[in-house]
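Could someone model zinc ion with this protein?
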Amino acid sequence: MWRATVACRGQRMGNGHKAAHHRGAHTRLARQARARYNADPNTLCARCHQPARIGDPWQAGHKLDGIVATSLADYQPEHQSCNTSAGARLGNQRRAGNDPTLNW
Ligand SMILES: [Zn+2]
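Reply:
Sure, complex below.
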């Protein structure tokens, strides 16, 4: 369960990955995914398998590492804290000023 998601950041692998395009599609789909998780009181976190927590909003995590999400099915619900801690763990050495929250 810990293998699959590097979240959507730090993808600078020099292999032609279109980060900007990816970010746009991801933002739109992720927003829809989050709305779905928020609307379902039975949503469980894909990382810690616990229900919603106060002050820890749902994030849309990637089910498959390195695969560009093309539909809501490519996302899984994750607590913000779970998503952030996992992304930081895996992405620290790769992240070089590639801020996923940057507005274009
Ligand atoms: Zn969690």
